[in-house]
Amino acid sequence: MDQHHIYDMVVIGGGINGVGIAADAAGRGLSVLLCEKDDLASHTSSASSKLIHGGLRYLEHKEFRLVREALAEREVLMAKAPHLIRAMRFIMPHRPHLRPAWLIRTGLFFYDHLGKREKLAGSNLVDFDPKTSLFKPEIVKGFEYSDCAVDDARLVVANAIQAHENGASIQTRTRCITAQAEQNVWTVQLQNTQGTFAVRAKVLVNAAGPWVTEFIQQDLKMQAAYSIRLIQGSHIIVPKIYAGDKAFILQNDDQRIVFAIPYLDEYTLIGTTDQRYLGNPDQVDITESEIDYLLQIMNAHFQQQLTRQDIISTYSGVRPLCDDESDNPSAMTRDYTLVLTQQQHAPLLSVYGGKLTTYRKLAESAMHQLKPFFSKLKPDWTAKALLPGAENFFNAEHLVKELEQYLPDVPKSLVERWVHSYGSRVWRMLGSCEHVSALGQCFGHDLYQQEVDYLVANEWAVSSEDILKRRSKLYLKFDQDQIARLDEYLLALHKRRAQEIAA
Ligand SMILES: Cc1cc2nc3c(=O)[nH]c(=O)nc-3n(C[C@H](O)[C@H](O)[C@H](O)COP(=O)(O)OP(=O)(O)OC[C@H]3O[C@@H](n4cnc5c(N)ncnc54)[C@H](O)[C@@H]3O)c2cc1C
């Protein structure tokens, strides 16, 4: 971080929208600094349903622009990060009293044809065999279509790495406390564990997600052009309730839908809810009524009945949605709006709303809006550019085989986890290790020192939570003693690194 330099752009927020804009801008030759008050993806961007999807449901709300853009992005993003994003088939069990078959077929016709689709298969009808069906006897047929599943937090990290490799400075655990413009330049006050300091920038981008309006009103002392409504969404995780790699989209009597998604080989991810949230976005947590709601929908469909005792883990996030004054949280628009304002002729671009799926297009639109302020801005580039880990990545199976030959004493489950986390960058993570014994201390569940050191050195991981919850999903397996051992190791590692820097 250079406090004397005038950055072209300072981005507030290390969720998907902030890192997406930082990566796009840095790749166009701008000097960029991004600050994130916590860890990368520590809020909404790691609390999603982990889908790259067109949003079949949004067709009912006539969100054709959003659905068309999101549908087309599925294949663009799959090609950019094939290690993080994979095609998935979804089955909607038919419940005739909720939506008639003709309506669903019409929706799926649009879904198949609205956006460009070359790799993803189209939709079809399915009949459930009563002898083997997972569903209650009255559910006899369904509709099948394609969307994609994503590792949301790792998609954020991949974009941060790309921004960094194009010269951006990524500052995590660094809060922007205020900013003021004077003579076309922003002076941005940042605060981290070392203290408070200022950086200067030509353009300020407010990608603070749930904090977008709070940042404008409280930290910049300006008027926000839009209000947002915070809508809480929660998920529960249970041991896998069915074999196979298809997801289910379940309709409820209130016209909402809930997904049941195969998750990390061993689990089923169930969500989400939609309810108004008025509290602090830092402290959102699942409510008892959300748990009841999700269990009730599952139990209305599946023969296997779930209870609270089946729940291994839960998570919640808040969607920062543009307030379109709708009475129904699930009908509120999921589209994004970018608002360009100025303070003392210095531009401020604020991001309202959005989805993981549309982050790349959102970043591109942000750059189009900011073009007049940068005379030498390079053209659009992200549609065809691979994200880190996708370089020389033929496919996951191929890389798994290569690694199994290279490290025959490493379990296949670990090799698969590495491949879906790092893609071809797994070779960098491994460094010169050729045997399991060279990977160093094992903290449990095949998390070795080599990987921990790599995450700290290359992916801004600081705490055990960063590593277990966002860089991996090992938090679902680690016990308190294992976490304590990892914490102890990280404390010593950070101390050593601080001493090296000071020396
Ligand atoms: C339950 C749920 C399910 C969803 N499922 C999907 C899905 O399946 N597919 C999909 O495409 N989308 C989905 N979404 C939407 C998607 O997750 C969000 O649109 C997206 O993550 C928003 O990203 P963001 O960068 O705007 O916000 P965030 O990820 O919240 O990032 C904003 C960041 O700004 C930081 N920040 C705030 N103030 C400051 C400050 N002053 N200084 C420094 N940093 C600051 C915060 O710490 C935060 O990390 C879902 C959302 C929810 C809640």
TrEMBL record:
Its cofactor is FAD. Residues 382-476 form the Alpha-glycerophosphate oxidase C-terminal domain. GO terms for molecular function: glycerol-3-phosphate dehydrogenase (quinone) activity. One of its GO terms (biological process) is glycerol-3-phosphate catabolic process. One of its GO terms (cellular component) is glycerol-3-phosphate dehydrogenase (FAD) complex. It is an enzyme of class 1 (oxidoreductase). Signal peptide: none annotated. It catalyses: a quinone + sn-glycerol 3-phosphate = dihydroxyacetone phosphate + a quinol. Coiled coil: none annotated. Belongs to the FAD-dependent glycerol-3-phosphate dehydrogenase family. This is Glycerol-3-phosphate dehydrogenase. The gene is glpD.
